[in-house]
Design brief:
Distance between the termini: 53 Å
Strand order of the largest sheet: 1-2
Number of strands: 2
Largest sheet: 2 strands, parallel
Number of helices: 4
Strand content: 5-15%
Length: 116
């Protein structure tokens, strides 16, 4: 029965009201194995928020207001514990550079050797 409620909440998630969606996420988590193991909640996060969250992961990554992805995608690995208060914003940083600081890749700065 709990699984049926979670699936129904997934369908209701089309409603574009942040308060309704927050409560639907809570209900889905409660009815489908909790935040760490809910497969339905993970589908909702990918479909409506562009956030792919690995199984076993928990924390504020299920709050789109705190883990805002804008138009980009956010991927959080499996079995990750994220502390409350942590925020994530997606940006394209060249991770292969010595640092993700704009000093190393922005054409406006000297250290990057040009904008790549």
């Amino acid at each position: 029965m709990k699984r049926v409620i979670a699936v129904l909440c997934e369908k209701l998630y089309k409603i574009k009201n942040r308060h309704v969606r927050k409560n639907l996420r809570r209900i889905i988590a409660a009815c489908d194995g909790g935040y760490a193991f809910s497969t339905i909640l993970r589908r909702v996060m990918v479909k409506y928020h562009g956030s792919e969250i690995g199984l076993g992961t928990y924390g504020p990554c299920f709050d789109p207001e705190q883990f805002w992805t804008g138009f980009g995608n956010l991927t959080v690995g499996k079995f990750t514990s994220i502390a409350s208060g942590v925020c994530a914003y997606t940006r394209n940083h060249p991770y292969w550079k010595p640092s993700t600081s704009p000093l190393f890749y922005n054409a406006q700065f000297i250290l990057g050797g040009g904008g790549e």
